[in-house]
Structure formats: structure tokens, C-alpha cells
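Before relying on records like the one below, remember that each one covers exactly one chain. Contacts with other chains, cofactors or solvent are not represented anywhere in the record.
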Amino acid sequence: MDRDTVASAVVGTGGAWLLGSAWLHSRSGKWNSTQLKGLVYAGGGFLMSSAAARWLQHMGNRGIAVSLMGTMFAMRGIYLLMRERAAQNAAGRPPKPPTSE
């Protein structure tokens, strides 16, 4: 396996894990809508970037554009998650740790 294949697999797996976490936690009701939206944005963005790197690399500008859009989505999701954590800290509430229940 070459380096690009391994990198795409790692990034894609992370994106799938984030989307799966959003789906599972949406059913539990323990996370608020901003946290779920952040997970979906970040997971979708990582999957977009991974797919673009793996299958659209030969398409030139189109592949680069899809990869950059995926990166923007991932950054937006991470920003939402960090903003929510900062709001919880500012309110004096300890952040709720994710549980496996």
C-alpha cells in the first residue's frame, strides 16, 4: 500500500466515526443540536476530503475543489464543537464527557 492510500483510509475512517457518533448520540438525546451539527459537519468534511484524495485526484481542479470544500466543512464542524465547549466553560458548567451508554 502506498502512503496516499493509507492517509485516505485514516481520514475516511475518522469521518465515518464522527458521523456514526453523531447518529448514535442523536438517538440518546445526551448531546445538544450544536454538538451534533458539529459532528456531522466534521465527519462529512473528512469523508469528502478522503474521497477526493482517493478517487478525484486525477481530475485536477475538480478534485482539488472537492477536497478543499471537505476541509472547509470539517473546519466548520470543529469550530462549532470548540465554540460549544467554550460556551459551556464560560457558563461554569463542566463539559459533559461522552459516555458509552
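The mean pLDDT is 87.
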